[in-house]
Amino acid sequence: MTREPVLGRSHECEVLDGLLDAVRGGESRVLVLRGEPGVGKTRLLEYVRAQAHGFRTAHVASVQSEMELPYAGLHQLCAPMADRLDRLPPGQHDAVGGALGLTSAHAPNGFLVALGVLGLLSEVARDRPLLCVVDDAQWMDRASMQALAFAARRLHVESVAVVFAVRSPEEDPPGDTEPAGLPELRVEGLSERDARTLLRSVLPGLWDERVIERFVAASRGNPLALLELPRMAASVDLTGGFRLPSTQPLEERIERAYARRVGGLPRRAREFLLAAAVEPTGDPALLRRATDRLGLGGEAAQEAEAAGLVRIGDRVTFFHPMVRSAVYWAASVEERRRTHRLLADVTDPATDPDRRAWHAAYGAAGPDESVAAELERSAGRAEARGGVAAKAALLARAVELTADPARRQDRALAAADAAHEAGDPDLALRLLSLVAGEDLDDLRLGQVELARARIAFTSDRGSEAPGLLLRAGGRLAAHHPALARDTYLEVVDAAIFAGPQARDDGQRQAAKAARLLPAPHPPRPTDLLLDGLAVRILDGHTAAVPGLRRALEAFADPGLSPQEGLRRLWLICVTAVGLWDHETLSLLAARHLKLARDAGQATALPFALTMRCVVHVLDGELAEADSLAEEVQTVAEAVGTAAPIYGALFVAAWRGREEECVELSSRADEGAELRGEGVGPVVSRWARALLHNSLGQHREAAEAADMATRDYGSRLEMGIPVWALVEYVEATALMGSPERAADAFGRLAELTRASGTDWASGIEARSRALLSDDAQAERHYRHAVEALGRTRLRGESARAHLVYGEWLGRSGRRQDARDQLRSAHALFTSMDMRGFAHRAARGLTALGETVTEDPGSARNELTPKELQIVRLVREGLTNPDIGARLFLSPRTVEWHLRNVFGKLGATSRKQL
């Protein structure tokens, strides 16, 4: 097959040819072509489409004005593939169908839409390879870009190619609507030789060499500039005359050149071009209705096309996006408004109400309540299609058109909430600043303060958020008690994240305020949780246990609403840890994860996965925990966000992987410093303490555990800070300084005794035994072994056998010591807790025992991803289910399974 490369682009064409060849071979490829306007990215997209013989192709031409319309880009790409939607799992089918307006699904979650797009591209490519090209990707609407970039990052062996073209000047960093984190190819200007060749191709006859040199230098090798600069040059330039160099940027000079060309056209052609520039769909029928209203004949379109500025076919497209920009901005403000109003009039309100409202908004010369109300309705429809960012943009425009102060404030608050939810804190704060400058009543002022506090907590989980939330709650208390109580609970939540870095006593003030604001009757689960935590903060742990248990029961109720579960289950799981209630913790963590999965909430999922990961670690199921920790990373990679690493840190510490644990704990410290998340160093120091204890490095363990708790003062948060006391007691006792642990044990015993569970009783007895004299120690060791043996906490149970066996050995009871250490070693080995297993083995070796280490198994041959897939097959999941769980296409799952079968010699899923 003969391939004619684009002039001066042999390397770029070679890369694109290789991309197509790889996809023909069954792989998937993604590429971002990045370069300045006019450098030839679109020409390269045309090349790759022309070379895609045997491919099905899909094309998206993004338009800047459509950035506010949710899933406009995805509609261009996927609507022609809608016949394959039925092959997707139901949740993904409904989400994609709802995003495209093909089904009545309510509020499709963006994460499910993204998973559905991945599956849809994979299904379409089953028949023949698929090529998707996206031009001017920087202008794709945010919802579409998030979905498509997510899918592009997860493609592997589906025979799909996705090529983006992105305008990105060197001085501007990529925006959040661009395809970040994907392979890129920078498209630079042409070489001087190729620039001369291109220039001479459009300059007939002989030309002064100085003219050629001046044009080549001025264009910097930009092909569009080489084509357009000669047209804008004055006669003195073309004859080799002299003039001062232009100070205008190249892009501006080209756009001005287009504006001059447009200005030289007849009035009717200019009016046609303005209507085409204002209407981003390029729908010829719609433009015809508009031009008929203007009294323009068919000659207007013909003259515009003859000028080489537009192409008229199935769609009206501009020669280059800068032509559209030049046409639009060369018109006067009133001309643009008049054209927008005209297009609003001719747009069908039944089939395209959002675009009609959008045109009406930009056609308004001042406040207009009817247009603002229509924008508000459009924002509601955008939200129903999962376009939260579009909702924010539409409401923001509605705010500008609203004259009534109260209604303006309500819309601004709603727009700010939407912007915050969409991950655009800057827009949210700008909207709030509009409201803050007006005369607000206490309720709205409280809502503004609450919105600011939530933004602060989301963007920087540090010391500022608790105080901001507290102030907002106080403002809301007299006007919206339920919202105020929710806000006080958020204060407690924020303070847990801030950890020792919390700058004020926000929790105590929130607890006191909550007591003055009684719960409704009957109380919500959230109210029970707030009241219980308030008692713990003000009166101590023992007094709080009954109330907190009632809160646990309420959240464990099957009738709990998914909305309340998604908002509060993380905090109630922390509460279950604080009550040493493993059974309820396991139930609630599983429910939280299921809710997050079912809702497709990419923001909630990492927290739910991490908490479930903790439960698996406590149960000694490190393989399952490792799988979930890997999934946390997969979620973050898929959606392009920073991943919480606490789950992986838990696994590494319990496994005794020193290098990995230290590296992860350092990352936790660094991330906490960046985000102000003061709990991060606490978790990392506890992990190091547990690691060092597992390795028998008790002095280092004592130092790390002490650092984890020393900044908290008299009252510890539930969970990790309390666990650090356990590590400190063991470390100081085994390094020969039990007297140092007296205070730590006293604080620990206060918490365990009040809870009264086998978990709490076993931990207290094990810690007490380490500090007891020989006369009392054995009774406590035996109690610890029995109590923890009645739980599912296999790691803690094995540790009870371990320290009991070590004590027996020091006491000279060699056979009894061997029995306990063998039990510990067998448990630790079965759970792959290598640090503790080696510690038990050292104890056995010292007693003359020969210890055989685990030789490993066939699973060591599998990659982490293959291990994940095998575990999910064992759970009974189908390939589509596994793909949805791991954010892979079913075809990629099939590919991994073929590798697994080959490595393990298996021939069926049942054998796995």
In short:
This protein is mainly α and 912 residues long.
* The level-1 CATH class of the domain at 10-186: Alpha Beta
**Amount of beta strand:** under 5%
Helix-strand category:
mainly alpha
The CATH superfamily of the domain at 10-186 bears the name P-loop containing nucleotide triphosphate hydrolases
Low-confidence stretches: 170-175, 234-247
Helix content: 55-70%
Summarize model confidence as the mean pLDDT.
85
At CATH level 2, the architecture of the domain at 10-186 is 3-Layer(aba) Sandwich
Q: What is the fold-level CATH name, i.e. the topology of the domain at 10-186?
A: Rossmann fold
- Major pleated sheet: 5 strands, parallel
Alpha-carbon Rg, integer: 33 Å
Domain HTH luxR-type: 855-912
Pfam families: AAA_16, GerE
Keywords: ATP-binding, Nucleotide-binding
GO biological process, one term: regulation of DNA-templated transcription
